[in-house]
Amino acid sequence: MKYLLKNANIFQDSAIAKKDLLICDGKIVSIGVSIPSDGDTHVIDLNNCFVFPGFIDVHVHLREPGFSYKETIKTGSLAAAHGGYTDVCAMPNLKPVPDSVAHLKEELDIIERDAVINVHAYGSISVNEDGQELADLEGMAPDVIAFSDDGHGVQKDGIMEEAMTKARKLNKIIAAHCEVNELLKGGYIHDGEYAKAHGHRGICSESEWGQIKRDIGLAKKTGCSYHVCHVSTKESVELIRQAKRDGADITCETGPHYLVYSDKDLIEDGRFKMNPPLRSESDKQALIEGIKDGTIDMIATDHAPHSIEEKSRGLEKSAMGVVGLETAFPVLYTYLVKKEIITLGELIALMSEKPGRRFGIDTQIAEGKSADLCVWNLDEEYTVDPETFLTMGRATPFEGVKVCGKCVMTMVKGEIVWKM
Q: Residue 38 has what pLDDT?
């Protein structure tokens, strides 16, 4: 199919210019002013909407195989397309866990059959993600984006060091969910003022930053490419900032909810429960400073759908996790860009360029590149309504929030995978 996108504000090379964009056979063949069309070209007038490189989320849970009552590859990838994502990296807490070539193949076969965008699978660090024995890293390496035991911190120092050593030889990233189990003590929200005032058991900040501190030491020792998942505390930010100064090969992510909310915004509702939890206001401000000064490299949603029943048990008993693919950009554009905390270009870098550079995924808009892009009407204001989501999950802390920015269209390899 041949497409000509007319009258677009195109984000290219960190700048925005009004141009046309010609796509043929999945590639961007021309970017310029007043590109002519022929009889074979499907012309789409974008009416001054914005064209961005496809967003990349390095941390999503698509739940299949094993938990298709929560989400499927098809529904999750459709939700991603709805949110402007052309590439997502799927976490391995599945059934079976992709800890071997055979188990990984079950997931890859579903991705090949059902995904509407580019889905990149993680392999697990350990067998069954139980932290006791290394998974088949060598066997899975050609077919995975990185290795992670997301949902579980690797508790044994020796196992993590061995994993990092092997990952270094395989030129693969270790993406770590950092959590010290012995410090959790049954907690389920942040160990802060809200927990104390309402009689909830809290999760201390050290349960996160304590393991990050250990892993930084191991990453320096092994030379491993190390990525920290869903950073939520000010201590974590400072540890990573210093590690970068020391020359460690380290990157990290945080999620939209940690940049917008703190534990003072909690209500007794499972849609505010995730792991790590919403932290203090000072933690939130440290995260914002981290994205401004480059300590935090990217924003990832940790999209984690559950059934309505699993999320309807309040803060204490609901499952951990919220959905985020369809709200990430509008929420961040509304709360960070429109409030002049960061620029639009900086947000696009956090959602596309930087995760792409780290994980080897290229969605930049340039002639000769694959046409992986998203189109946004930044002027459209609306209220977040989970009933409009394409994900099977409905639990979002942004329900009922007014945001600006609606995805008009998403293209992957030159084909339209979402259109209003």
A: 87
Whole-number pLDDT of residue 70: 98
Report how far residue 221's alpha carbon sits from residue 174's, in angstroms, rounded to the nearest whole number.
14
Locus of tokens 């993680």: 122
Please compute the mean of the pLDDT values over residues 369-380 and round it to a whole number. Answer: 98
The full DSSP string for 143-196 is G-S-B--TTS----HHHHHHHHHHHHHHT-EEEE----GGGTTT--EESSHHHH
State the burial class of residue 106 (Cβ atoms within 10 Å of its Cβ: 0-12, 13-18, 19+).
middle
Number of CB atoms found within 10 A of residue 342's CB: 18
Does 302 participate in catalysis according to the annotation?
Answer: yes
**CA 104/CA 89 separation, integer angstroms:** 14
**Average of pLDDT values for 61-74?**
98
Give the pLDDT of residue 312.
97
DSSP state of 303: B
The tens digit of pLDDT for each residue in 273-290 reads: 999 999 999 999 999 999
The CA distance from 339 to 334, in Å, is: 7
User: Cβ(174)–Cβ(224) under 8 Å?
Assistant: yes
* Token representation of residue 97: 């866990």
Side-chain-side CA neighbours of residue 240 (13 Å): 32
Check residue 317 and give its pLDDT: 98
Q: 99, 215, 302, 372: which one is catalytic?
A: 302
Q: What is the mean pLDDT of residues 297-321?
A: 98
State the Cα–Cα distance between residues 282 and 354, nearest whole angstrom.
25
**pLDDT value of position 274:** 98
Percentage helix, strand, coil, to 5, in the chain?
A: 35, 25, 40
The token duo for 306 is 């559950």
The pLDDT of residue 414 is 97
Q: What contacts 345, CB < 8 A, 6 or more positions away?
A: 11, 14, 15, 16
